[in-house]
Amino acid sequence: MTNTHIKINDCVIPMYADVLKDILRHDHVHYVFAGGRGSTKSSFVGGIALPLLIIQNPDCHAIAFRQVANTIQTSIRSQVEWGIYKMGLEDLFTIPKRYNNPIIYNPTGQQIIFMGMDDPNKVKSIKLPFGYIGITWFEELDQFAGEAALRKVLQSTMRGGGDFWDFRSFNPPISKNNWANEYTEQADGRDNTLVVRNTYLDVPEDWLGDQFIEEANELREINPDAYKHEYMGVPIGTGGNVFPNACDFDMTTPVEGIPMWQTFDKIYNGIDWGFARDPFRFVRMHFDRAHLDLYIFDEYSTTRTRNEDVFDKLYNNLKKVSRSELVTADNSEQKSIADFRAYGAFIRAAEKGPDSVRYGIKWLQGLRHIYIDKQRCPETYREFIGYEYEQDKDGNFISAYPDADNHSIDAVRYAMEKYWKRRGN
Predict the structure, then answer these.
(1) SS3 sequence, 299-366?
(2) What pTM did the predictor assign?
């Protein structure tokens, strides 16, 4: 382990050095990491702590959880793989290509298992070749369905062995009333729990890169509240509203004799398909990149309308959309996209991908303003103003986004995909 100790210094920020000693000594059972973007908490927990604990405890296996299984490969598993290679331990571990197969510590056969919490009862069916599950890691804590859901899992894992480590990591959600924020406040100071809070300011700048620092500084100047939440990890809201930066703005006010919305030059268009129960929704917007202000100035909504008739309304009659304007649409309706292309629209399918909803919404939350013309876009205004986080059975807000009454929100995410995908990555 001598060489490993040398390499650890290259991948652990100074403030985590004592935390790592605490973990390896097993001074606590529960470890909560609450930090803003770029704080390296997930890399530390998954990439450093988990592999080292596996090596140090030969009877112990680990499970790393995400709420949704299809986010495992790009999040928790990639962090574990990064740490193994960063510490020079790749010859000691077998890393299968399939994300749902465990990583194996070769000298003993210990496993690092990856699971989604889509069905928490699956934990009970895990069969180990020997030993016990001594390490659990819940990444993006606020996305899980409350403390009761985690307690149910730990009741299945924390048995039949010696020492146990329970890791929880997350970016504090915007609402102070979110269950994960409340849990962290209550857990801080307990004898068996260590709460670690830090930000990107604790990380060497060359680890983060110039682009990261530039974006953080820019947001601090343009939207101090969003900076405080996103980068400093401070819950700045008190309720469940997802978009506190959304507001009504009359864009029909004349500017040099013409309505304001007609002066916009950076136009983006999004479509969320629908037909029967769900409405079709088309939304137009202008993005002021310099000030991080989004202006939503037009919409079209309909149900039970054929694609040909919708196209005619948008391009020929009601909205007069130019056929040279790019439209980004939900990729789940490839036939509808093909229809619009055949009619003459310049249209592309949204890329989406794992965690795309979360990335897109967080990007929208980070804008200085989301201006919506309430008169011209009544459905879009209603959705953004009324959209709230989901609640658990006890009425506590959790960091999950309802997949209902969000058609305009989805259309806006698709339209602005080129910006939030770049930032999310």
Answers:
(1) EEEECCCCHHHHHHHHHHHCCCCCCCCEEEECCCCHHHHHHHHHHCCEEEECCCCCCHHHHHHHHHHC
(2) 0.66
Residues facing 170 on adjacent strands:
34
Confidence class for position 422, pLDDT limits 50, 70, 90: low
**Which of 174, 203, 232 is a domain's end point?**
203
Residues 203, 11: Cα–Cα separation, whole Å: 10
190-213 pLDDT tens trace = 999 999 999 999 999 999 999 999
CA dist 419 and 384 (Å) reads: 19
Are 36 and 236 spatial neighbours (Cβ–Cβ below 8 Å)?
no
The first and second tokens of residue 219, run together, are 């947001």
Contact between residue 383 and residue 407 where contact means Cβ atoms under 8 Å apart: yes
Burial class, 371, CB count within 10 angstroms (exposed 0-12 / middle 13-18 / buried 19+): buried
Single-letter amino acid, residue 245: N
pLDDT of 238: 65
Using an 8 Å Cβ cutoff, are 12 and 147 in contact? no
- Tell me the residue range of the domain where 304 lies: 240-424
Task: Say yes or no: 333 and 400 in one domain.
Answer: yes
Residue whose C-alpha is closest to residue 397's, from 216, 205, 261, 241: 241
CATH of the domain at 98: 3.40.50.300
CATH number of the structural domain spanning residue 245: 3.30.420.280
Q: Is residue 225 part of a domain?
A: no
195 occurs within a structural domain: yes
Can you tell me the mean pLDDT for 392-414? 87
Give the sheet arrangement for strand 246-248, strand by strand: 246-248, 369-372, 293-302, 280-288, 267-272, 326-329, 346-349
Would you say 414 and 330 are in contact if contact means Cβ atoms under 8 Å apart? yes
In a domain, 358, yes or no: yes
What phi and psi values does residue 76 have, to the nearest 5 degrees? -65, -40
Same domain, 287 and 381: yes
Q: Is the pLDDT score of 9 beyond 90?
A: no
pLDDT of amino acid 374: 92
**Is 228 part of a structural domain of the chain?**
no
